[in-house]
Amino acid sequence: MQHHDVIKILVVDDRPDNLLSIESILERESYIIVKANSGRAALKILLKEFDFSLILMDVQMPDMNGFETATFIYQREKLKDIPIIFITAHSHEEEVIFKGYKAGAVDFIYKPINPELLRIKVGLFVELYRKTQSLIAQEQKLLNANASLQKEIEEREASELRVLDLNKQLLQNNIHLKAVNAELDRFAYIASHDLQEPLRKIRVFSDMIVQKKSSSEEVNKYVMKITNATIRMQQLVSDLLRFSRHSIQGGDFIDSDLNEIVKDALNELEIKIQQNNAIIKIDPLPSIHVIPTLMRQLFYNLISNALKFRKKDVAPEVHIYAQKESPEDATSQLYKIYITDNGIGFESQYAEDIFIVFKRLHSYHEIEGTGIGLSICKKIMEQHNGFITASGELEQGATFVIGIPVKQREPLPQAL
Looking at the structure, do residues 207 and 103 belong to the same domain, yes or no? Predict the structure, then answer.
């Protein structure tokens, strides 16, 4: 394992047998386990070492309990991002849980410790730590690139054109940096909320099974709830990976007939269209320079969305048509393609939010899925130097507009 991949975990417990037990549960994972037998001993270690990915801490300790120790740890700037999982014998009292979350807990493990659950929880937080670290490293790389460009602008006696080019590059880097920051924030939100919620349900319903020991029908009901929560979590994790790895390189721009591309997308959705008795009306669409694979995915996502957000008692209707916009400047001619539906719509103030990764609207909570499709549509339109917008009202359907330049710009020459 390379040095930067080494994961350090601090385990704090006043009983040597507990420390040994946790160490043996985690030993197959190649983590570095550092042990402390009191809150004070933990604080002493944290004075010298800051590179822990996770802290596992017993709540009940003589002298200084886990919550008090956590409060001291989080007062230090260098330590405030290390997640803490508390280990406690109290699986009752809301008060203990509330105190723990107030002290900064990200989760709880209950005694007697279930080894598999401990491994899963530790593995999840370690993976989130790795992802976050790589985003931070990417951000640092961009900051360094900006610094060197800035220096080049200041030091070099060059022509005005050269300075303008460098400024343009610097501006693009700044935009990218903002986007990386925004995704880092969203990632932190998912880590602390969406990914943990299904885990909490798994824990609660598991506890119920253990406590009930009643008829098998009731046990089966709880097991089904556990299974559904697990499937939901897998969907969240796989959608998150799909978004972070989504390649928008897609291929070359080809003169393509949008009628054919939409037809391909409809073929893939044929069963869903039949199940919902949907009416799809398509006016003649233009041939235009696009990346066909990406445009097919865009239409698939938008039509699939219209079917998903249909009204319960009304057959979905989707209408797709095009208009050519011709401003005086011939280079900025574009086609606008409209996709309208008669579904449940959305409140107009959320028109921007629906394109943000994992941002789901309150009114959509009963609809399955994680809201990844529109975020990918936005990425695809950026790749086409175009745009995508949405308008709608609650219960009045929605209209999506995609704008694609008639002529694609030549790529800018790279700064030397």
Answer: no
Residue 235 sits in the same domain as residue 342: no
Q: Are 274 and 207 in a shared domain? A: no
Beta strands 317-325 and 334-341 are: antiparallel
Residue 415 lies in a domain: no
Report helix, strand or coil for 15.
coil
Structure tokens at 157: 């006696």
pTM of the model: 0.48
In tens, the pLDDT along 16-41 reads 988 888 888 888 778 899 999 898 99
Taking phi over 0 as left and psi of -120 to 50 as alpha, with beta for the rest, 144 belongs to: alpha
- Give the Cα separation of 404 and 384 in Å (integer): 7
Query: Total structural domains in the chain?
Result: 3
List the chain residues with pLDDT less than 70: 1-5, 90-93, 104, 156-160, 184-197, 199, 203, 210, 213-215, 234-251, 328, 330-331, 357-371, 410-416
Number of helical H runs and strand E runs in the chain: 12, 12
> CA-CA distances (angstroms) from residue 119 to 1, 71, 122, 199, 294?
19, 25, 5, 13, 39
Quote the CA–CA distance of 3 and 21 in Å, as a whole number: 26
Task: Name every residue whose Cβ is closer than 8 Å to that of residue 204 and which is 6 or more positions away in sequence.
Answer: none
Which amino acid is present at 407? K
Nearest to 191 by CA among 124, 101, 104, 245: 124
* Cβ neighbours of residue 252 closer than 8 Å, sequence gap 6 or more: 291
User: Does any domain span residue 413?
Assistant: no
CA–CA separation, 265 and 203 (whole Å): 41
